Amino acid sequence: MMDKPSAPAQRLDRWLWFARIVKTRTLAAQLVGGGKVRVNRSRVNKPSHQVREGDVLTVAFGGQVRILQVRAMGQRRGPPQEAQLLYRLVEDASSMSAAAADRRKGNLETGKKG
Hints:
The chain has helices spanning about 10-20, 25-35, 80-85, 95-110; strands spanning about 10, 35-40, 40-45, 50, 55-60, 65-70, 85-90.
């Protein structure tokens, strides 16, 4: 019985490097190994974890949390314009949490609960 061909996949550390999320593949492996990356809301600890088109990555580093959707697999570490085609920025959770903090601060000053 023949299995259906699976969607193309790539190692998580390579994809992070190709997409220029980190400067080196070693840093990508350390980021993943340190539990700073989630794939589809599940924490991943192995740099060899396979990512596919459509996966949503939550990456926490440098005091920021970025949520990215994988759009394509990388073939090489090209220029930044090429790397940006590999993903779509879903949300920059850092700016989202700053806005939420501002709303909370405003609610505290006016006496509203939020």
